[in-house]
């Protein structure tokens, strides 16, 4: 559990340290998408406005369409400038980013409203322009142009603001996708580190027990048995250390590894240890974490075979139940044998933690009499 918390803390630290470098670029929208959305928005406006005017039977629509085309081009240019400003301003929070977008839209709306007034009332005035100007001058004799620009700006601000909000939303969505990808990457790295750490717990634990046994044989003067155990130990370590700790192996490969270990124990208990394996042929290629059975079989030796005087069987049974692979390891108990002292729980805890890290709550390890 401590390893997992440390890994997650390191993951968050990496992300926070990297944040200033990637946030601005990740929050930007693809230029093709941004520019395409600008052109599409103004083109839709042009088509809808022109189409509605034609349907209502307004006069001189072709000349108005030309003027409208000019202001649409001006709108595209103003929105493009807004896009450039938003690309260069990337505050940290979504709210600050949105506020910056809304603020940047204000001067550009005023520029667009001014161009709109110049096109329709000064450069290419329509037949109704004079009448509209007279009405405005009656209401606002001094600053009718200012009031016209202000009124137009208020109406057009919503148009610009909608595009700016969409741009910020798309950018924020891009950023969240990148954050999620990076978080997944760091999560996988943390999980990999934890799996390796748990795997490397197994060999020292096993090696300690085996060297203890070897010491006992040496003290007894059992030279031949000690030599056999050393050779078996060498074979087991060569096979187990050659396997990538992140790797899944087939069930028959895992059992073959455990048989190498049981050969070592067979040297200690030649007349007592009996091994029975029941595995349906269709489960031979089921994938399991390498050495996942090692601590459990060690326990079966420690609590079943070691304290006994007679023959003790260790049974490994594999089955498929409800779509899950179920592995059962059982050992006989000699009722007359003394009960060994309880261990530290490292071995079984290691198995449970490895399964939880790799598979989540789907997998588990249970033990008991």
Task: Write a compact overview of the structure shown.
With 369 residues, this protein is mainly alpha-helical.
Overview of the molecule:
This protein is mainly alpha-helical. The protein has 10 helices and 5 strands, in the order H-H-H-H-H-H-H-E-H-E-E-H-E-E-H. The chain has helices at 2-26, 31-55, 61-88, 94-123, 129-139, 144-220, 223-241, 251-268, 294-305, 346-359, and strands at residues 248-250, 273-278, 287-289, 312-321, 324-331. It has a 3-stranded mixed β-sheet with strand order 2-4-5, covered by helices on one side. The two termini are 26 Å apart. 22% of the residues are buried. Residues 14-22 have low confidence and may be disordered.
Summarize the SSE layout with pairings.
Layout: H1 2-26, H2 31-55, H3 61-88, H4 94-123, H5 129-139, H6 144-220, H7 223-241, E1 248-250, H8 251-268, E2 273-278, E3 287-289, H9 294-305, E4 312-321, E5 324-331, H10 346-359
Give me some keywords for this one.
about 375 residues; 3-stranded mixed β-sheet; single chain; rod-shaped
């Amino acid at each position: 559990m401590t390893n997992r918390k440390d890994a997650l803390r390191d993951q968050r630290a990496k992300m926070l340290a990297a944040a200033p470098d990637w946030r601005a670029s990740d929050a930007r929208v693809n230029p093709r998408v941004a520019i395409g959305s600008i052109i599409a928005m103004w083109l839709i406006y042009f088509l809808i406005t022109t189409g509605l005017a034609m349907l209502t039977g307004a006069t001189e629509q072709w000349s108005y369409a030309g003027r409208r085309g000019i202001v649409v081009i001006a709108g595209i240019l103003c929105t493009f400038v807004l896009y450039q400003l938003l690309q260069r301003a990337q505050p940290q929070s979504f709210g600050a980013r949105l506020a910056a977008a809304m603020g940047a839209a204000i001067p550009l709306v005023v520029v667009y409203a001014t161009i709109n007034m110049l096109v329709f009332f000064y450069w290419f005035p329509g037949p109704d322009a004079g009448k509209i100007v007279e009405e405005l001058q009656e209401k606002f004799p001094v600053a009718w142009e200012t009031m016209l620009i202000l009124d137009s700006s208020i109406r057009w601000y919503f148009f610009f603001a909608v595009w700016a909000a969409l741009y910020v939303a798309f950018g924020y969505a891009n950023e969240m996708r990148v954050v999620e990808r990076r978080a997944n990457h760091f999560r996988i790295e943390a999980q990999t580190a934890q799996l390796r750490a748990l795997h490397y717990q197994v060999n020292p634990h096993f090696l300690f027990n085996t060297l203890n046994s070897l010491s006992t044989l040496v003290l007894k003067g059992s030279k031949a048995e000690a030599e056999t155990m050393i050779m078996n130990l060498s074979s087991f370590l060569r096979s187990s250390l050659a396997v990538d700790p992140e790797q899944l192996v087939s069930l028959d490969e895992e059992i073959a590894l455990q048989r190498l270990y049981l050969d070592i124990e067979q040297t200690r208990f030649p007349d007592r240890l009996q091994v029975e394996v029941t595995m349906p042929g269709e489960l031979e290629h089921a994938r399991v974490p390498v050495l996942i059975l090692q601590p459990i079989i060690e326990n079966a030796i420690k609590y079943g075979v070691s304290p006994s005087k007679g023959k003790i069987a260790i049974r490994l049974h594999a089955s498929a139940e409800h779509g899950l692979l179920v592995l059962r390891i059982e050992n006989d108990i000699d009722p007359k044998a003394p009960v060994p002292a309880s261990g530290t729980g490292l071995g079984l805890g290691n198995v449970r933690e490895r399964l939880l890290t790799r598979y989540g709550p789907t997998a588990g390890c249970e033990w008991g009499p």
